[in-house]
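Bump. Still looking for Helix-turn-helix domain-containing protein structure tokens.
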Amino acid sequence: MFSFDEFDKRFATGSSLELKALLPVGIQDEIGHFNVFNMSKIRQTVSNTPSEPYQCRTFYKVSLLLGHSKIGYPDSIIDLSQPTLVFTTPKSPVTWLPLERQSGMCCVFTSEFLHPTRSGVILDELPIYKSPEHPVFPLQKSDVKNVKDIFEKMQTAIASTYAYKYDLLRAYTLELIHLGQQLQSITMLHPNHSNFARTTSLFIELLERQFPVENPRQRINLRAPKDYAEKLSIHVNHLNKILKETTSLTTSALIAGRILKEAQILLRQTNWTIAEIADSLGFSDVAHFAKFFKNETSISPGVYRSQPKSLNYT
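Sorry for the wait, here they are.
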């Protein structure tokens, strides 16, 4: 058995990477670029000696730390007194000091493992690695279970004989990265966007997530500007000001435009009754829906449905 620091140092030597020359083409690019470990199975000691640096300069690392420890950065020391998800990179000037016997799990991987041609991402361009905030995230109980499950899936996959297990391991690694990015502040996730642009994108996402309407029993829930403002935790007047500046349209106009688009699709592409369409789109009755539709298009829903599809009234 060896200590956690010795474990890091063994990876720093790169000796495992040299062995890949003995492997067939294709497998060479996988083996030696990823591994996953259960910390409780690695002998660890606790002492009052100075903390040791992470020596693993070839690898990126994602760790779930469950015991009490400290992470040191050049500008701060973070006390980890609850379950924590930690991201480190080959460039991370980090020291780690366990204050009690550690448990948890970790995975290590190279930039080649998540190369854009394999993963579709540019690793160092991800917010988790570009953020000026230290990527150290205390976890809620539900998050701990989720992270443990991902690591356990990694262990099952890497021990399997499944031919595409490294593709599966990439997916699990990206799942951990995205979980970390969800725990980042919204400012860090959108560093190049203004507050107005972020709010606008969140509004549009809320609006679009209600569509498409796929059956008459489905009903959209967010109909009024105040509904969106409440979801975004801002005043409705402020939301309207933001959207007016970024889109030149009011909140009501944007909502109405998207509902009209869905109404036209349903009138042309389904055999639902107009009453069913009205109900699905959140109208109290057919009369209110007909009035809305005619105000927007100058014709009634029934006339629109009966006209040739080549005609466009919007």
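Residues 165-183 form the longest helix (19 residues).

Edit: fixed formatting.
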